[in-house]
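Blackboard transcription, Thursday session:
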Amino acid sequence: MAHRWTNDMTRADVTPKELWLNRRQIMAGTAGIGAAALAGRAAAQDALEPNPIEDITSYNNFYEFGTGKEDPSRNADEMVISPWSITVDGLCDNPGEYMLDDLLSGLTTEERIYRFRCVEAWSMVVPWNGVELADLLAKLGPKPEAKYVAFETAVQEENMPGVRRGVIPFPYVEGLRMDEAMHPLTLLATGIYGEPMPKQNGAPIRLVVPWKYGFKSIKSIVRISFVENEPPATWNIINPREYGFYSNVNPTHDHPRWSQATERRIGGGLFASRQDTLMWNGYDEVAPLYEGMDLDVNF
Amino acid sequence: MTLSDRINGWLRRVPPWAIYVAGFLYAAWYFWLGLTGGLGPEPINTLEREYGQTAIQLLIAGLAVTPLRRFAGINLLRFRRAIGVTCFFFVLAHLSVWALLDVQALGRVWADILKRPYITIGMGAFLLLLPLAVTSNNLSIRKLGPKWRQLHKLVYPAAILAAVHFIWLVKGFPWEPFIYAGIIAVLLGLRLVPRKRPKPVARQVAS
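(Written on the board underneath:)
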């Protein structure tokens, strides 16, 4: 059931590699032709221009490698991502330990250009490559009693300085309600800009749920569990008042310590202005999933 | 010659104005880095935190002057005003980056001050430091007399508020804000150590 959701843009709209590799220099005005091509393209698609790869790979939250935004790009190199296996357990027909390639075989990899909104009120636009989570879950045969899907991030203590420091409890865990997991927007991403997923972004495979705050999109997944009850979610455990299980992007429900009404697009420099945050991060098609729910209670 | 004598001798050769110059150059250099991409793709937050962190470091340096003299014999008294004023300069820079570059709208700045406790606390620290910065000149010292010393004890509650402000704004449990809070607690605690009074000379009782 791939291709259930399509970008407003086609693959041809993604910045060609030779451009995103050195867009900073182009923007500095050293390559006239590239700049002209870029300007034309930017005018055509204004709002959803993907961030250049260096933004996406140098400004990350991945506490396993440290709490600083630049820590993951500095420290993630040590993570061992090959071979990579994922344990599937819980209420499903095909539990077991799968090698990543086996798990993905037969599934269609697509490109999805999504807005990415962090709970810290910054945002990016990322051209992900990946498979629909729904397709993978269908392969694993969830039982009718399975109401939620839980995920777990790898813990490689010797390779992860943040794990050794214990800034938050590890392993990092997250979860989705089954209908959220099956939604066509929900992606298991394996790459960015057509290249394999960089380690600091959650190699080799991570979740991307574009209408939720970024921390729901768990990285470097080693376990997928089908469960009956709402599974634990790391930030929700640490501070339930600040981070709800749902954590849908919602400009009207503030984080207790900061406003969620606006956000800053990464890459705009020192004088970048804030822009309004969109309900569901602009993905209104997910609204029916939460019909009848009080979003200030189930934030 | 003891170590502290040697340190004091070396310190005598450093003019206090060097602290103003170094502080200003450091702040300007960081701003320049932010302008030119040297602080990564999101320079506003980085700059805001760097100025704030430097301010709390200078606050700690200022609070260390008295205990260093009392317990280690190192005399930094000459530098205390420069440390304090430079600290306030970084507080102002921190506040400006937050209000002008980060939040960007006066209405939202005011709303944040009222609504968000860690910002309320940060503003509280700023308001406590403001009169200290204003009276950091010889004229005020002369005019206020003994009241000047009393007034400048406001730095103690300001330091506590600054430490709480830092702890409150982070996510998770990183070490740094707790280390700063610990150092501030120690420096304030040292002021509670009673000073030894010179022993009264025992009276010779004629027998």
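Lecturer's comment: DSSP finds ten helices and twelve strands in chain A.
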